[in-house]
Amino acid sequence: MTRREVGWRLFAQEFMDTDLYLEGEEERDPNYLITPLGAKVNRVFVVGTMTEKENVKSPEDPFWNTRITDPTGMHFVSAGQYQPEATSQFQQMEIPSFAAVVGKINVYEGDDGDLMTSLRAENVKNVGENERDLWTLKAAKSTIRRLKLVDKAQELDELSKDSLMELGFKEEHAENFLKAHEHYGEVNTESYWNAIENAVKFILPEYESKDLTVETGEEGESEIEDFEKIKSEIMELLEEKIEEKGASEHGVDFNDFKAYVTEETDISDSEFEEAVDDLRANGELYEPVLGNLNTI
Amino acid sequence: MYQYHTDLYSLNKLLYHGPGPDFYEQGLLRCIFMQDENKLASHVEDIKRALNTDLSEEQIKDEIEIYTEKYGVPLGNAKRSIIKKYGGDPQSVSKGVEKKIEDITSDEKGLAVKGRIVSINSKEIEKDGETSQMRYGILGDDTGTIQMNLWKMTPELEQGDTVKMENTYTNEWQGEAQLQVGDRSTIEKIEDDEVPSHFNQLNVDDIRKDMNGVVLSGRVMSVEEKTFTTDDGEEKSLFSGILADKTGKIQFTAWHDFGLNEGDVIEVQGGYSNEFRGMPQFAFSDNANVNKLPEDELPSKEELEKISTRVKSIGELAERGSGIDVAVEAVMIDIKDGSGLIFRCPECKRVIQKGACRVHGKVEGQADLRVKGVLDDESGALTVIMNRELTEDVLGYDLEKAMEIAKDEMNQAVIKDDIEDVLMAQSVTAKGNVSTDDYGVMLIANDIEMNQVDVEKEAEMILDEIQEVR
Questions:
Q1: Which residues of A touch B331 (CB under 8 A)?
Q2: How far is B308 from B328, CA to CA, in rounded Å?
Q3: What is the ipTM, given to two decimal places?
Q4: What is the pLDDT of residues B233-255, one digit of tens each?
Q5: Which one of A198, A250, B170, B350 is separated from A133 by 20 to 30 angstroms, measured CA to CA?
Q6: Which alpha helices (H) appear in B19-169, and where do they start and end?
Q7: Rounded to two decimals, what is the model's pTM?
Q8: Surface of A (56-115) touching B: CB under 8 A
Q9: B308 or B151: which carries more pLDDT confidence?
Q10: What residues of B are in contact with residue A4 (Cβ under 8 Å)?
């Protein structure tokens, strides 16, 4: 009996950070990716916003490249002739819309020789906001479970399967985390904690666009207003810039644009980054390719 | 041979009729607490010992509940946090003490334990690209049993051996403490009489196929007498039904009239197990010892019904391979071909393709509705089968209407599309019987419901947890 691979609820951040690939020895053996937090992944289940889709082949023999955004980043999802059901679903789906995707991991080499991860869709379906929220919560819980253990593990003097299991790692996770640690070294869990916190806050109405003001009391109101101003200013400048460059497809380079904004306005580097994170989390802008910004 | 017939009969009955109407009443929480009450007491004692304060047991209990219930902190961590909070030394908990199995918690270090090997097996594991051997099994004493992993292959051990193990540790595996015997642990065989003889008291969910000398107590949830004729032409009776304890339900067969009545709480000494249709079942004959126990040894029949349908993780069910009347909470991530409107051979009920049965050739097919889907909760995945009734519920129309729709559209597949619209990517709670065969783990559902989740409340809880950690 072969065990069916589970669908990992994996945030884009952890998946994008992944480049440890274990290829099956025999042709029919499953392939896996091991994430920095030690998840050994063959199948992923993700619910997010489909922000882009493109048929890169022909109408008769379609091959879809799509992007599914979650609050932490973007999943690259494709489907071709071997995924007929997913392919016909992609055909019908609107941009933007909430999409649930079950897909197998796929890797390819990027321009710079880096290993890039993507998903080959098995099943795709349009869903509602509620399903998106539910998924976000499950993905958060799943990531937190790993993060807590990894935080503890990284305080150990000596990593071994025994010592990890004493911390509460399950056998399989312990083995996978050892491989992850060897490959990735020390993991900066802080950035994962931040991303999850923002992802979960995103579900709560009272946190919408108030990231700056969580505990600031009376000053809060004006800070919200300031933050909103910064965001709308950035959006205006971005739209101008994209039009100026005729870059409506690929967007503009993140660093160039940051330099431009901080030069032209009073907005500081950190304000810029915070605002862009928030705009991205709210789906108002996205990264069509890594390192570029585009409006939706 | 006879056993095969009777098992088939009672299993079919269970599969097709399902549990009674009083099955899914509320009140789960109370049962959970009842079950954990005893365990909780030993944790409270641990904390008290470590603190040496005048904190009352009630206060400690409340503290534990806040950590575990409200914040979902694992018990072991909760204990350490509480001890630290009140100025104690978390390390002092279970430092090199010998414990009875029922007192062992999931966060022990330097633990010593004496017991009898109830079962032991070895398996190959992959470690740093190399395969090596490990052993796993069940250890029992007069207070209970515990799952164990032995990371060393010596000394050789077999079922029935009595051992003393020192410097072991435990962690949590699917909600239960699991004993880990690592490189630094010692294993010593000891005199047989150091462990009481009624040692191998198992829980229902510890029962795997092909076990011998099992001691199991449970409540008789149902029992039925069946007669059969032996090869010699002799008329004989057997008694079969369902036995339940706080960990689950199991099918049983008694090859002798022990005077069992529905509702009895019994202890069977010297039973054995075998497997039928991917589910272990418990059996005992006249050489077993069957005692009736006091009524209050186990929760009532109604409460046991509720406990058994508590949501379990698919990973746990897959590891065990079976379960009667269990519930899972998972997302439907695939609707397989063969779902929707299908036609069956009138002779053998197999699904026919293009009007022909692969055994009976060209036949007049009988229409039916079903769903074959995949449920995935990230701990595991299984195939779920929904019969016509459940499929009709999900679709919101019946078989006749489905045939009409398919006829109008001139396409049978539209019914599958409708099922996908309703179920695909949805979070559901499914109840039924779990079994394992060559194709994997399967749940024959007798109930399926869409999950309603208060996302904002859940989100708040997760944020609380994040704040707690950071």
A1: 7, 45
A2: 11
A3: 0.73
A4: 888 899 999 999 988 899 999 99
A5: A250
A6: 28-51, 57-65, 75-85
A7: 0.64
A8: 100, 102
A9: B151
A10: 374, 380-382, 440-441
